[in-house]
Amino acid sequence: MKNFFPKPNEKIFGLKNLDRETLIYRVLPRLMMEILRKYFRLEVSGIENVPRRGAVLITPNHSGYSGFDVFVLAHVLSTDAKRMPRILAHYFWFLSKTTAIPAQKMGFTEASFENGMAALEKQHLTVIFPEGEQGNFKPSARMYQLQEFKRGFVRMALKAQAPIVPTVVIGAEETHINLSQLKFTKFLRGLVIPLPLNVLPLPARWRIRFLEPIHLPYKPEAADDSELVHEICQDIREKMQKALQEEIKKRGAVYL
Fold first, then answer.
1. Which pLDDT score, from 0 to 100, does residue 101 have?
2. pLDDT over 90 (residue 193)
3. DSSP-based three-state secondary structure for 194
């Protein structure tokens, strides 16, 4: 299947002879992402910390119930880092063909340890949100407070011997305000629904910062050491929380 994001050197603005699928899944999304980039006055720093080849895990905070952070981050990785991202996404995307087909064309794969390992073994740049839906569906009263990290990404990095690039996204929290969250886990596994204040995105300033890559000095079998995995996970979470606080302090006005 064709990917949502164009190849780094692909020219997509010459619209002549484009088929319908290319127009829908490549050209229009690229144009939309460029518009959003300007609308959010996006600033990117640390892009040099993203390896240009080989397996790598990008681990961002997850914020703003709409999922705009996923699309903007993937666009930046495609255009600025010249890497085609593989995104481990919530299983909800794959419940029906209506959502599964567009998700696959956007480079989404259902988030699981097996799918993450498959992407890394193929030397792909892989994006996983350690907070899961608890991050982007948390109430805005807890904005920029990282939720508990799932530890699978650490095990993936150890087994694949891949570096981890912690990444912080500032701005998505103020773009879509979430009043609360509704949990329906009793009816459908892991289903959490936001209670939004706004649907149209507010013009908050965005900033994406890629931290220095972390090369874990352990052999693949260390992935079975639950205590070590937990410790590494906590260290990365603390590093990201500190970086978030630094960026918030220096960014100035949110909407001006």
1. 72
2. no
3. strand
Quick one: CA torsion of 12, 17, 20, 22, rounded to 10 degrees? Answer: -30
Q: Please give the C-alpha separations between residue 112 and each of 13, 34, 119, 152, 177, in angstroms, as whole numbers.
A: 35, 30, 11, 8, 28
Q: How far apart are CA 133 and CA 88, in angstroms?
A: 12
Residue 202's contacts (CB-CB under 8 Å, 6 or more residues apart) are 174, 175, 176, 177, 255
Phi-psi region of 209 (alpha: psi -120 to 50; beta: other; left: phi over 0): beta
Task: State phi, psi for 178 to the nearest 5 degrees.
Answer: -115, 120
227-237 mean pLDDT: 98
Which domains does the chain possess?
A: 41-250 (3.40.1130)
Give the span between the Cα atoms of 125 and 80, in whole angstroms: 13
- Of the two residues 9 and 77, the one the predictor is more confident about is 77
At a CB cut-off of 8 Å and minimum separation 6, what does 90 contact? 110, 111, 132, 133, 190
Burial environment of residue 251 by CB neighbours within 10 A (0 to 12, 13 to 18, 19 or more): middle
* Overall pTM surpassing 0.85 (yes/no): yes
pLDDT at 17 over 60: no
Tell me which residue of 87, 83, 75 sits closest to 111, measured CA to CA: 87
Q: To 5 degrees, how large is the angle CA 47–CA 166–CA 157?
A: 115
Distance CA 41, CA 39 (A): 6
Helical ranges in the chain per DSSP H: 20-22, 28-39, 68-79, 97-105, 113-121, 133-136, 152-160, 172-175, 226-250
Residues of the chain with pLDDT > 90: what percent?
Answer: 66
